[in-house]
């Protein structure tokens, strides 16, 4: 028996949870389950006030906290225990009347142990009475309500008995999507009548036959059936609502008995007013925002339907909408209609809108010129629709122009500034292009120059030159040293003394590097060939030849590879180059100047020491002295490179009076990957050691000869990228 009672209790809870009527025995089963769950009374047990126990088949509630003893059984100690009386559940709960704003309920009396009755809707108490009737008022038309009636006294409440009823004056509307519905609403869908079970807003796919939890089909009228006031039925294709409680009989069909039934008519066949002043309130590259004036309806406005072309894109309750996910620079046509709850639609309003262009592309390669008080920036034009350009320094905007050049004024002498150039239009700003510049008027070299990016040599003249874009993607390298500029026809610059400065494979490689956000330095000279130093007759001519390269290619760094007897060991040419570099710096204060020279394993040879001393004496603006740490009889290439660098440091400290840190900051290392001309071998592991030592000491340049020799795999290039 206990097993069966528990099964009934579970069924009752499950069914009630679905919002369906519980079986007739469910309430009694629920209370029986409580009784069966009470533990048996036992002696020598601690009990607290309110504890319920079972003794000889009767339940008792504890009145005082105590520990039980033999002879203190509940039946014999009324001071400690009180019998528990199970309250009866209200019987024969029924609807006795319905109006458009109220529902009347009744039930049979439940006996002398009952103080009164409480009526609940969900978890909310709607009424409390001592009689067996109650009327719930202030309701809306055609609303379905589910009430639970419980008896109560000083010991608590009984289980509940449910009843459902619908207020009068239902009207019939067509089911539409995106409309709010309340429980009790009567709709027609595909010629079938349904009644709403739960408040909700309809969505596509929620048509009444698809969602039985939201809608139930209205049943046809039948004779010999008990009907409550408010019940909705169909008869011969017409919908009716009961006016009072009765049991139907032949001859009392709804169409012929107006005292018992009221016809449910269509509520609305008038369309809403036209949604005036449809307008575009904003556009971006991917969206259009619309707004319009509110429509009115004689019964109830449900909302608005927005179409893009012939496609419904939204049904909204308010007077604005933003259509997103659109293509840039594209014209769209929109149609708008107001819709009421009956499915009537207004006349259509139309408007067209064009999305904005996307944000511009990143500005092209930028370079700078400067004087004592200002910096002039120039850059390549951005792609796309460009309104103008903004120049930022950090988070501060310094200028805004519509051309591809701008001057930032009011600066001090020998100041370094880093600018970011961004194109903009109505859709926003592009990615930035950075460029650094230093005003003129410096009285001495920068004591702490910034570190240059690792930039291995790339030689396009021969040696199976790789595509620099492929190298960048596979190694992370961002900068290259392009080799070599030499003399042609006297004091004229050309790649290898043969290829034009622009329009050839060298300029194409530079364009590829810059298009991927990289930078380039250009190296002059080399081991062999005709060099500008010997062929240019004087410092101004040398500087003019260098200037032709800078004007044509806009390098971030110019490197002078001074080797061999024609330049390095020819002191007249040494001085010509050093004096020419003074003019180069004067005309190009933002271009870094480096020299690359041979070394011994212990430091500079006499020609190298002489060059450093002359740079000091002549005031040559050298930003970085780089030693070629190969072809010097190396044995342990890491240790020999460190020793040679320490020798260079000693020379720089002696000549310029610099500290260790200042000397290191003006130093660089140029290696040769793999095996050198003299048979020395530098391994990737040793090159990694050299790189890390250079970073630790604060050296500001690292390069090697050459990317061409670093195939396949580009191991040395990857290591150098980490500088």
TrEMBL record:
Signal peptide: 1-24
Any GO BP annotation: polysaccharide catabolic process
Keyword Iron-sulfur belongs to the record: no
GO-annotated cellular components: extracellular region
Family annotation (Gene3D superfamilies): Carbohydrate-binding module superfamily 5/12, Glycosidases, Immunoglobulins
Keywords recorded for this protein, A-Z: Carbohydrate metabolism, Glycosidase, Hydrolase, Polysaccharide degradation, Signal
GO molecular function, one term: carbohydrate binding
Cross-referenced Pfam families: CBM_5_12, fn3
Source superkingdom: Bacteria
Domain called Fibronectin type-III: residue spans: 89-174, 274-358, 359-446
Descriptive protein name: Chitodextrinase
């Amino acid at each position: 028996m206990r097993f069966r009672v528990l099964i009934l209790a579970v069924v009752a809870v499950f069914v009630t949870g679905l919002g369906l009527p519980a079986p007739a025995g469910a309430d009694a089963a629920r209370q029986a389950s409580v009784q069966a769950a009470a533990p048996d009374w036992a002696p020598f047990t601690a009990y607290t006030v309110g504890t319920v126990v079972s003794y000889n088949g009767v339940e008792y509630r504890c009145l005082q906290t105590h520990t039980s003893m033999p002879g203190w059984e509940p039946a014999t100690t009324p001071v400690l225990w009180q019998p528990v009386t199970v309250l009866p559940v209200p019987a024969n709960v029924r609807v006795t009347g319905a109006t458009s704003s109220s529902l009347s309920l009744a039930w049979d009396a439940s006996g002398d142990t009952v103080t009164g009755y409480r009526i609940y809707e969900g978890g909310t108490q709607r009424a409390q009475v001592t009689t067996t009737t109650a009327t719930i008022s202030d309701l809306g038309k055609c609303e379905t309500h589910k009430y639970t009636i419980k008896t109560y006294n000083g010991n608590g409440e009984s289980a509940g008995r449910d009843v459902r009823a619908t207020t009068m004056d239902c009207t019939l509307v067509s089911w539409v999507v995106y409309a709010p519905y309340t429980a009790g609403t009567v709709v027609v869908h595909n010629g079938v009548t349904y009644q709403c079970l739960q408040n909700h807003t309809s969505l596509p796919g929620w048509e009444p036959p698809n969602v039985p939890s939201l809608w139930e089909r209205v049943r046809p009228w039948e004779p010999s059936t008990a009907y409550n006031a408010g019940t909705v039925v169909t008869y011969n294709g017409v919908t009716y609502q009961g006016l009072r409680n009765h049991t139907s009989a032949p001859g009392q069909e709804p169409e012929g008995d107006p005292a018992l039934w009221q016809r449910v008519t269509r509520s609305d066949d008038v369309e809403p007013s036209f949604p005036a002043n449809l307008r575009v309130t904003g556009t971006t590259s991917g969206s259009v925002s619309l707004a319009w004036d509110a429509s009115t309806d004689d019964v109830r406005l449900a909302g608005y339907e927005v179409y893009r072309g012939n496609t419904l894109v939204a049904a909204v309750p308010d007077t604005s909408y933003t259509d997103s996910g659109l293509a840039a620079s594209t014209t769209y046509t929109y149609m708008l209609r107001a819709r009421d709850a009956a499915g009537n639609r207004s006349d259509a309003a139309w408007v067209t809108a064009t999305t904005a262009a996307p944000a511009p592309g990143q500005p092209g390669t930028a370079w700078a010129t400067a004087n004592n008080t200002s910096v002039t920036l120039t850059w390549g034009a951005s792609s796309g629709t460009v309104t103008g350009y903004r120049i930022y320094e950090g988070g501060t905007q310094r200028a805004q122009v519509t051309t591809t050049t701008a001057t930032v004024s009011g600066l001090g002498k020998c100041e370094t500034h880093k600018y970011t150039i961004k194109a903009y239009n109505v859709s926003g700003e592009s990615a930035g292009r950075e460029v650094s510049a230093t005003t003129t008027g410096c009285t001495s070299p920068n004591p702490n120059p910034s570190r240059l990016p690792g930039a291995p040599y790339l030689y396009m003249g021969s040696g199976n030159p790789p595509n620099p874009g492929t190298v960048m993607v596979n190694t992370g390298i961002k900068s290259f040293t392009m080799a070599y500029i030499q003399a042609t026809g006297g004091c004229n610059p050309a790649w290898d003394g043969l290829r034009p400065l622009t329009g050839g494979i060298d300029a194409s490689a530079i364009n590829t590097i810059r298009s991927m956000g990289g930078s380039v330095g250009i190296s002059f000279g080399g081991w062999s060939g005709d060099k500008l130093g010997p062929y240019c007759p004087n410092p101004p001519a040398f500087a003019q030849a260098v200037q032709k390269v800078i004007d044509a290619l806009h390098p971030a760094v110019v490197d002078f590879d001074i080797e061999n007897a024609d330049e390095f060991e020819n002191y007249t040419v040494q001085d010509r180059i050093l004096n020419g570099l003074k003019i180069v710096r004067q005309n190009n204060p933002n271009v870094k100047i480096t020299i690359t020279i041979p070394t011994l394993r212990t430091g500079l040879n006499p020609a190298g020491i002489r060059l450093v001393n002359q740079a000091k004496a002549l005031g040559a603006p050298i930003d970085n002295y780089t030693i070629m740490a190969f072809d010097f009889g190396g044995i342990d290439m890491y240790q020999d490179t460190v020793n040679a660098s320490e020798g260079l440091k000693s020379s720089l400290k002696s000549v310029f009076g610099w500290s260790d840190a200042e000397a290191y900051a003006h130093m660089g290392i140029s290696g040769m990957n793999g095996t050198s001309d003299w048979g020395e071998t530098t391994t990737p592991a040793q090159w990694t050691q050299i790189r890390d030592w250079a970073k630790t000491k604060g050296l500001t340049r690292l390069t090697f000869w050459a990317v061409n020799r670093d195939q396949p795999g580009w191991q040395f290039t990857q290591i150098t990228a980490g500088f």
